[in-house]
Amino acid sequence: MTSEDTPMWLRIVNEIFFLPDLPSIVRAGKWSKKMRSDNGVFHPPHKPSKPDYLIFVNSFFGLEIPRDLPPTAAPVGSLLSPTYPPLDQECGAFLARHTSVLYIALGTHIILPHKDAAKIVKANRLQEDGLKDGVICAMGKTCRADLDHSASFLFKGESKEITLGDLLDNKHLDWVFPFFAPRRAILGSVSTKLYFTHGGGSSANEDLYHGKPMLSMGIFSDQIANAARLVAGVAESLSKLSFTSDELYTKAKKILKSEKEAYSQNVLRLQRIAHVANLIEELMYNNELRFKDGKELRPMHLQTADMRMSVSKVKNWNFYTVGGLALSAGLGSMWLAGRFAWGYRGPVIGQFRSIAFASWESLKNTVNK
């Protein structure tokens, strides 16, 4: 997310990555301009209007990359309400019967292909290993449209296969598929141990407020960037294009068992930051949980990356030096090639004429035959 640990080649790629997509970007700009014109919209997009003296930005200062702020910007702490809708009867009864629940919520507008839904169900080995004993998977009617209800699964320890349709109809004691689930109430339950999310801004902020580790699978928009931030200590990421049930199982096991202590410490640190009343408490809680046995685990919470980088990297002097050398090498090579060609222009032109004449004679002989 910053250039602190980024190698030079990746910084160069980052500067030119958009070039292959430039035609698409231009077409999208023209299409957007035409659409606005066709609908009679002529004012500049995103034009701020006065008065704009007070603006709230939905930004978690434990999740975001630290950056310098102007004097008119001030972090005011969590704006999440301490109260929220309670558990409904279905989810409340389920959480009361289970002690280690995986909560899955991938967004209202995201429709999972059947093959991806099947991968999630097949990761049930977490239950076979005793790492979870229940699953709550919130899924609206639209999200179920592409699912094959006749697909069957056999869970270890059970003699009979169960279809996906039966799971969706809540006919398995350890699975529940509500059309809507009270997210914050579920995240606030002591029975919820892991949250599988798309990593949207609200989902990430609310999860960190309630202190649960995550599996994050960004689908679009800010979710991709949020996933890159969450994996810095409170989540494992999955790719929507290539994730497998084995990967889901392995990464969930890593959070719940093999590296549980590290994830728990980071989750607690961010949860405290989300709950604090002022910046003094925020710094106190952060400082307490970023050390272990006297060893610093991570930099200070609000320290910007440039404080840990050399001046040449902060100012991009090394980047500009490499670019200047590359440009000089290219121009120098062109100059040398031009000078060489000019110095030997007589023999080169003579050779070219000889080749052209020989080709012409050969062509005439071929035609005459």
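The above is record 1. Record 2 follows with the same two-line structure.
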Amino acid sequence: MAAAAAEGAAATALRAVLGRAAKAAERSGRAAEAVRVVAVGKTKPVSMVRELYDAGHRCFGENYVQEFVTKAPQLPEDIRWHFIGHLQSNKVKSLLAAVPNLHMVEGVDNVKIANHLDRAVSSLGRDPLKVLVQVNTSGEESKSGIDPSRCVELAKHVKLACPHLIFSGLMTIGMKDYSSTPENFKALVNCKLEVCKAIDMPAEQFELSMGMSGDFEQALQVASSMAGSEDLSGLTASLGELHVESSALKDSEISHPGNAFDDDAIADDDVWDDVSDSPGHGSTLDREWAHRQNQFHKMGYRDGIAEGQKDIAQEGFNVGFGQSVHVGYKWGLVRGITSALASLPDNLKEKMFPNVQCRGQLQDLNNSVQEISAEDALQMFHESILRSSHSSEEPDATLKRATDSSRLQSLSKDLVILLHECPDVKVSEELTGDS
């Protein structure tokens, strides 16, 4: 009975939003078909999305990659999926591979993510993918999106330098204070006018994604009054998070099954516990060193956690996660320590490394570390783990893995040698141990 009540409530909520959208479109001088309602189901169960699908809806959105790639394969292939919001570059390929019916990415906010998407679409042999550039019209630091002054530049890059992407328009997420959202929407419409002029794009082909269940009528009104009714094609109104006021529905909600590890939950202890607190070690150098440790020590945990969850298997997760955390943590130490030392002021570097040759070696090591991309680092983790897990396989394969994973060993060894040249630093066993 509770499930039936929840399903009925979700479908009722959808019909209510569609009705409001149709009336808002009519008031702005457009047909209801000009407004696309994207039902965003983050943290909601597959059964709820399926209910709305069975009610005839086909346009759905998600905000979290891990939830998305788990949920989408369980649902019909004719759904037109939208990914909405900030997308991390290291999750681009897994998203595109897992969701072949991904219709649009609403959240391209920098050149790097545009390039990653373009390459991933090409390598997977997909048809060109529609994208919207996300603009931070509210100026809130907590929100993703490019500054309005730079949206033309990014739109040009997508249009001209990303042949496997289809630049389709702009999106924004207004402030939660709905009294402020009209200004956010006006800013996005102004950006649209500038982009259309800069890339010579017909206004009727340009899509605007702005407004959720609490404010999309305002979005339609603003767009209509500023741009004229002929420019409203493709305006998107999101159903928000499919919240429905129903006690039965709350019982059926699920929590976000994404990364169970919060960065803030990771202990803030120093990487090494052997930094002395005695008065003799209270120098500027020691304080700077401790500060740098606190800045970089979480990097390895993050890398390890990400790698541990990358190829999750139900029985093998604990083993794989443990191995990858170790390798990722070691890479975090190498990269973090090297970067921290290289960025020290010259007078501190001279104090730590009196030998000019050592300072030169530090700079060379830092250059080598910085040249390793995130993709290269993941490959390094992968090969290091396989090397330790398949030591009994054929000699040729073992040799290849040893060669591929020796890069981390070499960088770690070079760093340890350098640190031994610094009399004020005690080298941790976590650096000197095997990967």
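The radius of gyration is 26 Å.
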